[in-house]
Amino acid sequence: MLQASTIDVLNNTFGYKDFRAGQSDIINAILLKKNILAIMPTGAGKSLCYQIPAIINELRTIVISPLIALMDDQVNALKQNKVSAERLHSHMSEEENSKIWKNFCKGNIQILYMSPEALMRESKLKIIKELNIGLFIIDEAHCISKWGHGFRKDYENLSNLKDLFPNSNICAFTATADKATREDIIEKLTKGNCDLFLQSLKRPNLSLTVHQKFNWKEQLLKFLIDKKKQSGIVYCLSRKNTEAVAEFLNNNGFKSIAYHAGQNNNIREKNQNTFMTETGIVMAATIAFGMGIDKPDVRFVAHISLPTNIEEYYQEVGRAGRDGKPSDTMMIYGLDDLYQRRRFIEEGSSNEEHKRMDHRRLDALLAFCETASCRQVSLLGYFSEKTESCGICDNCLNPPMLEDGTELAQIVLSAIYRIGQSFGSNYIIDVLMGVNSGTNSEKIIKNNHDKIKTFGRGKEYKKKFWQSFIRQLISSNHIVINIEKYGIYQITNTGFQLLKSEREFKYKSITISETSPTKKYRKKDDIEIKDDEMPLLQKLKELRLELAKKQNVPAFVVFADQTLLHMVETKPQTLGEMKQIIGIGPHKLEKYGKIFLDTISS
Ligand code: ADP
Ligand code: ZN
Asked: 511: how many CB neighbours lie within 10 A of its CB?
């Protein structure tokens, strides 16, 4: 009986044929008057899960949403489907708001969207108490938790809802919440009386890549080489960065605009609209850009510096590929980013406990960046979800080589120890490399650090090598950056064990091409893909994914990216020509040759 009516609403109101994974269970639980917390990845279809019960329910529903644009979109979409829905917010006139409010009180509106601050006003609460609200929906519920990445004070006030409305059903939705955040949401909103719906956060169409940063311009262009005319987002640390990135991309054949909280509302809105309605725009944005961005064909997301933590990273990369088609992501980061992030935490206004927690979250992100195993496995592992290797991340495609770095690490640690654990990375590297000219040399001589045993012991390696190596020592918790003391590097207990040879240290091999991406980028045999060839590349990638899925193997097992690029460039017409393509031997020719030829000529 219940099932029939929910599917009726799905078919007849929304025009969709079947429920997606998880939707039906959540809807039924809400209809059974359970409090729930549902965690579903972006794009999975959270809204329907509460809109259908709200439509079926005889009692009215209030939806709390943090973002005006999001409320407008949802309400417009519902009205299109002839559902009686409205919203109250500060961008509407007083007359409009008061008319809607009156109508809601009279029972003429079934679903009302509002902001947390509008709801938790005492005068409003008094009236709402009399209205017998059936259902409170808290969207983006992670904002309630101080452990979450988007904490909002006005959301925290929602903790009183359960006391105020003991007979109402409280249902919370979010796309990301780690264990601590989840527990906090459940406790605050429902005092523990809540069913948890955890849907797989896996996004199998996203390829995740993380590189160390050498030169963001070159690395970004390299990432974008096959992405002309595609829509994408480049996340930047500062407002100034967004402008610089947009300008740089515009000068390099892309169409790019900036978005950040410092722009006036009109410009921000205009830029967002351009991105949402046109194709082929690269949005260079700060974290301010994102919540509620429901553009299905965002083909890539790049981070040119370190995000705050894994949740934020997951949300941001999650804006790519909502249509389920293959989409690429890349993050580049360096020691400077790490230092900045630590400083942000220290200089922030949170209390000591939260600062410690934020540092730990940053550590977890760092471990993700430096992992030598599958990125999806590492990312989902953070949210307590187990998964198979994805086959399309950088580590799956090019498993990093691990090398014994015990002796090199001892040189670094010993240098840090001998200079009194009182300096930052540049100074340490100059000591290691025996630099006697440069910004630190005077200081080094004055401090007599050119006399220590390790001075110059790392001469044969380049500065970039040491930066990468030291970062790996930090991410493996052998060194910590002491932010309270101006970012000096100190040795941890594990670091001392390593120094005393009580443990070994393996590091991800740092290759020459990695340390000089310019060379690789400008290599003559780099394959150039033209704009009008992009659809073909996309088709081949989809075919590859389909074949891989059928055999339950990673995509690269079918063909590497380079093979597809080469195919697009040369467009073989015969099996003989196909055999000339990089990465196609007789077996693969027999197995895949024909189907790829067909796709190329179709
Ligand atoms: P999110 O989980 O990110 O909030 P939305 O609720 O915005 O996702 O849904 C993403 C898109 O998927 C929307 O366009 C929505 O209409 C669509 N959608 C949701 N459920 C279904 C379904 N069962 N069948 C088809 N499309 C659906
Ligand atoms: Zn992987």
From this structure: 12
Closest-lying ligand to the alpha carbon of 291?
1
Per-residue pLDDT, 523: 30
- Name which residue sits closest to atom 18 of ligand 1, judged by CA: 45
Q: H or E element: which one contains 235?
A: strand 231-235
* pTM of this structure: 0.69
- For the record, the structure tokens of 399 come out as 């498993």
Q: How far apart, in Å, are the Cα atoms of 259 and each of 241, 294, 340, 441, 497?
A: 10, 16, 21, 41, 47
Is ligand 1 within 6 A of the CB of residue 46?
Answer: yes
Per-residue pLDDT at 514: 39
Q: Decide: 202 in ligand 1 pocket, CB within 6 A.
A: no
* CA 549 / ligand 2 centre spacing (Å): 14
Tens of pLDDT, residue by residue over 330-351, are 999 988 898 889 999 988 888 8
Closest alpha carbon to 327 in 393, 395, 252: 393
Per residue in 547-574, pLDDT (tens digit) is 988 887 777 778 878 788 889 988 999 8
The CB-side HSE value for 449 (13 A sphere, CA atoms) comes to 29
Ligand nearest to the CA of 295: 1
Check pocket membership of 201 for ligand 1, CB cut-off 6 A.
no
- What angle do the packed helices 406-418 and 425-433 form, to 10 degrees? 110
- Full set of structural domains in the chain with CATH: 4-198 (3.40.50.300), 206-348 (3.40.50.300), 401-508 (1.10.10.10), 523-601 (1.10.150.80)
Lowest mean pLDDT among 103-117, 159-173, 179-193, 430-444: 430-444
